[in-house]
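Write out this protein's structure.
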Amino acid sequence: MDQYQLIRTAYRMYGQNISELSRLTGHSRNTIKKAIRVEPQVYKKREHQSFPALDPYRVIIDNWLKSDRKNPRKQRHTAHRVYNRLVEKHGYKGSESSVRRYVRTAKVLLGVYTPRAFIPCDPEAGHEAEVDWGLAAAIIAWNEVRLSLLYAE
C-alpha cells in the first residue's frame, strides 16, 4: 500500500517519469503504470480458511493428529503421510497442498505442534563477538589436567 502511494505522489507531485520510478522502487514499468492509473484494491485477511474438499475427512484427520500427541515425535503423522492414508484408505480426490495447509493449522490448534521462535544472530562488526566454552587437556607438573576454556570465534 505504501508503494502505491509513493509511486503516485512521486509521479504527480514531483514529476518523476516511469523509468525513474521503476529504478527507485524496483518494480517493472508495467506495475508502475498500473499503480499510476488505478487505485489499488484493498484486500482483507480471511477470518477462516475453508477446506471444501476436506470437509468429509476433517474428523478423521483430527483423530489421527490427536492420537499423535502421545506418540514419540519421530512417529507422528506428516502431512504427506496423512494425504497418502486419505487416498489409499478413504478415496480422497483432492490435492496434497490443501491437506498440507489443513494439517499445518490443525497441528497448532490441537496442540500437536507448537511453533518455536527463531532469532537470527547477526552481530555488527566490532560490536559483538561469539564465544564458546570448551575443554582442553593440559599437562601440568607431569599430571594431565582437564581445563575449561573460553575461546572467541
